[in-house]
Amino acid sequence: EEDLLNDVCKEVVDKWSESQIVDAKEEKEDEIQAITSMMEKQARIVVKPKEVSQEEKQRKAALLAQYANVTDEEEYPFPDPAQKPLSGSRVLSALNTPPALFRNTNVEDVLNARKLERELLRDEFQKKKEQDKLQREKDKLAKQERKEKEKKRTQKGERKR
């Protein structure tokens, strides 16, 4: 009976190991199938090129040409309000250049911010100066009052003698 029991156990273990091998093969086949289906779906997706009208191409070319013409040393065609009125040659050069789409105000903003900061500091300095002056006057009056009190006290002491 023991031999029969061992044979049965061995047969069960063999069948179980065979089924495990078959399951692993099936899982690998399923994974391969899933990957191939995903690749096929991606291959079917076609990106359509964007259709650009002739007008948009011209607008883009004009913008690029404008940016290529303006350098750091050059000014935008907008007149600077701090400058003198346009002279004859400057008028012609301003008219010949294409109008800019925007005005670069970074420099003006920085200068205005510095100017505002200086004004605020000047105001604060004036206030502090006035406060110091008032404090000096108060101190002077307090010193004078102390002297007068001391004087009165000494006079009182002399009278008692």
UniProtKB/TrEMBL annotation:
Residue ranges with Basic residues bias: 149-161
Region annotation Disordered: where it falls in the sequence: 123-161
Regions of compositional bias (Basic and acidic residues) in chain numbering: 123-148
InterPro entries: CCDC43 (IPR037666)
Domain of life: Eukaryota
Identification of the protein by name: CCD43 protein
Species for this entry: Crotophaga sulcirostris (Groove-billed ani)
Gene label: Ccdc43
